[in-house]
Design a protein that fits this description.
Elements (H helix, E strand, L loop, with lengths): L9 H8 L10 H16 L6 E4 L2 E4 L16 H18 L38 H4 L5 E3 L15 E3 L18
Parallel strand pairs: 2-3, 3-4
Antiparallel strand pairs: 1-2
Length: 179
C-alpha cells in the first residue's frame, strides 16, 4: 500500500481563475460546478498544490529558485507546506495573481529562444524557461505538466519529469516509479 496525494495543476487553476482552457468548452453552469468542486477539494485538503515524500517535493510543474529564491536550502516538507499555505490563502481571497500562479514566457506565447527569462510558477513552469541550477533545490523534485514517453531526468540531475499521461497523438500510459 501507499499514499495518494491529489495535486492540482494548470487546468484546475484555469477553472479557479476563470481562464479559458484550450480545447475544453463547457457551459457556464458546468464550469461553475467544476470550480466549486475544486474549491471544496482544496479547502478540505483532498487536493493540494504540493506534497512531499521521501525528501522530495511533488508539484504539477516544478519549483524554480529563479521564482522562489526563498526556498534555497529549505526542505521538501517546508516547500510543500508553504506552497499549500499560499494556495489556501489565494483560494480564501479569490486572488490568483501571485508568482506561484504566474505563467512563464512559453505560456505567454514568447519564444523559448527569446532573451526574456520569465519563468512560470508551480502550475506553469516549463523547465526550458529556467537555468538548470535554478531547478536544483539540492534534492530531487518530481513534476508532471510535460508529458513524456517515460519518467525522465533531462533538465538536470534533480528535476524528474513523471507525467506519462495523455499527450498529443498518444493514449496515455502509467509507469511504475520508485516515488
Amino acid at each position: 500500500g501507499g499514499k495518494v496525494e491529489r495535486l492540482i495543476g494548470n487546468h484546475e487553476l484555469a477553472y479557479l481563475s476563470n481562464d479559458a482552457i484550450k480545447g475544453i468548452v463547457y457551459t457556464d453552469r458546468a464550469r461553475a460546478a467544476i470550480k466549486k468542486n475544486i474549491l471544496d477539494d482544496i479547502q478540505t485538503g483532498r487536493a493540494k498544490a504540493a506534497a512531499a515524500a521521501e525528501g522530495k517535493p511533488f508539484t504539477h510543474a516544478g519549483v524554480s529558485k529563479g521564482v522562489f529564491p526563498e526556498y534555497a536550502g529549505k526542505s521538501a516538507a517546508f516547500i510543500a507546506e508553504d506552497l499549500n499555505k499560499k494556495v489556501g490563502e489565494a483560494v480564501r481571497k479569490g486572488d490568483y495573481g501571485g508568482k506561484i500562479f504566474a505563467k512563464g514566457r512559453a505560456e505567454k506565447g514568447n519564444s523559448l529562444l527569446s532573451n526574456e527569462r520569465a519563468q512560470g510558477g508551480i502550475f506553469w513552469l516549463r523547465p526550458q524557461e529556467a537555468l538548470k541550477p535554478q531547478l536544483d533545490l539540492g534534492f530531487e523534485q518530481v513534476v508532471g505538466h510535460n508529458p513524456a514517453e517515460d519518467v525522465r531526468n533531462i533538465w538536470g540531475d534533480n528535476f524528474i519529469e513523471a507525467d506519462v499521461g495523455r499527450r498529443s497523438g498518444g493514449t496515455g500510459v502509467y509507469a511504475d516509479t520508485p516515488y
